[in-house]
Design goal:
Radius of gyration: 15 Å
Organism: Lamprotornis superbus
Strand order of the largest sheet: 4-3-2-1-7-6-5
Structural class: alpha+beta
Strand content: 35-45%
Order of helices and strands: HEHEEEEEEH
Pfam families: PID
CATH superfamily: Pleckstrin-homology domain (PH domain)/Phosphotyrosine-binding domain (PTB)
CATH topology: PH-domain like
Largest sheet: 7 strands, antiparallel
Protein name: PID domain-containing protein
Distance between the termini: 26 Å
Number of helices: 3
CATH architecture: Roll
CATH class: Mainly Beta
């Protein structure tokens, strides 16, 4: 994934955390930590299950920072989950379901690989979330390297 030219200008807000309001579609277990085909298949499973359920999706505020991803309920502001950047192995915007952003992370409890999918209001937002997570990875790496230099 290519980072845009203006990526250096984005470091400031990213340190604080950038917020996106999305709808949580669900989670499925996956075999591999990364890969486009694996993610596409996982997203298909999640979307199919979500369609059958016909329930209202939980609206969440997803915050991306170099520490990782945090999720809070958009209505109650209650913290749902905090995922360390070091547990996230992959993130993507699905090619077919292009409003869907997904990430793969290792579960803290079981160690299993989980793919979590979110629906964004627009394709551009799903892409922005994916790009922001990629930038957070890069910053976390830069910060880690600086600390160990």
């Amino acid at each position: 994934m290519e980072l845009p030219e203006s990526w250096a200008d984005m470091q400031e807000p990213l340190l604080e955390g950038m917020c996106f309001t999305l709808k949580y579609l669900g989670m499925t277990l996956v075999e591999k930590p990364k890969g486009e085909d694996m993610a596409a298949a996982a997203i298909r499973r999640i979307v199919a299950t979500a369609r059958v359920g016909a329930r209202k999706f939980q609206k969440v505020i997803l915050t991306v920072s170099p520490r990782g991803i945090s999720l809070q309920d958009a209505d109650t502001k209650e913290m749902v989950e905090n995922i360390s950047i070091y547990r996230i192995s992959y993130c993507t915007t699905d090619k077919l379901q292009n409003k869907v952003f997904a990430y793969v992370a290792q579960s803290q409890e079981s160690g299993a690989l989980e793919c979590h999918a979110f629906l964004s209001p627009k394709k551009k937002i799903a892409q922005a979330v994916t790009l922001t997570v990629a930038q957070a990875f890069q910053m976390a790496l830069d910060l880690w390297e600086a600390a160990h230099a």
